[in-house]
Amino acid sequence: SLSKLLEDNTSFLTTLRMQHLAMQNHTLVRILKGRFPTRQAFDAALAPFELHPAAERFAVMLFRIESVDASPLKDDHELDVVNYLITNLAEEMAKERYEAFSCQVDGMAACLVGVCEPEEETPADRVDEDLGRIAASTLSFMESRFDVVLAVGVSTVRCGTEGIPEAYVEALDALEYGLMVEEPTRIARARLLQPRSTVRLEERFNLEKERQFINAVKSEDFRSAGAILEEMLSQDLKALPIDLLRVRVFGLVNALLGAMGEIRFGAEEGFLENLDPVKRLLGARTISALNRQVVEIFDRIVAYYDEKERHELPAWLSGVEAHVAAHYMQPDLSIAEIADRFGLSISYLSRSFKKHRGVNLLDHIHAVRLAAAKSLMDSGANIRTIAEKVGYLDDKALIRAFKRYEGTTPGRFRENR
Description:
By secondary structure, the protein is an alpha+beta fold.
């Protein structure tokens, strides 16, 4: 019948319209993710949908649903329906002044905003203010009319179609940053974050600070290490995009554990299991909580190390003393050679040896050589021969050592025996 034919035709047209919208949504998602970076590819991708943007500058707003009626969404269908409302609302508000194209991407509502006027007529600051108002109005409307609580990330204004994926990443970073700050914000602005384009330049400074931190740990200068760590957390790292911040924090903790290993930290298995730095860092929900966990991990490791050092002698200590006793007669015996043989840093070896034995390692080497030299005084050998047998290059070196440590010369020492 005619009515059946009309009904089938309406259903067919509805299906075609839905497919058309789905294809348009898919294309916009690909644009956000950088699949059509050039202007020509951008225009060609949108032309089939009768979309012909004239804008040369772009920004992105991302809306994430936090709850509906104070409850999480039940299924993907509910998510799609609510996101559809958000995209249409944000797009209509943005179109009052700008070009706007909305889509759903990875469970969120996205609005790509195009600015047609040049920077001189519509500065980026003005666009940023407008986007803030659009975001606030969208959040307010959705919450008051539908009891839908949203969070939004707003990018900066980027030039050219090649800037669209950069704006999309900025909006993602802003969304996540908004959840990680001490007091989560519903509208997070990318302009408050350190731009990714400057991160590489800042990395050199941060990496230099990290090297200073690690060197201080290896030197057991934990006071300086703690000060450097606090400075990095409070100044150098806090404005990084969230993904980079997490990576840097995990890297700091790994570097800390590595440095402690180099100074023979020797932590018992139970200590590290109880400390569980990975769980601590993953469990931090805000930036300040993340920073507090890093500081607590550092403080607990240092406290454990100090306590262990007070009650235990390093396992390598007797080995170093035995090595000196067996090789003192070799002129090339040095702190550097000993440190290399036992896998220790020179600074750690020197400081730790003095801490446990009350004497510098170099002084200990001289003491062993002089004791051997004294025992050879009755052999009748001349001073030069004795010097060579106990590891000095010549008699002058032996005489200098005698004067420094014994307050006399080898000759007078022999005469007074």
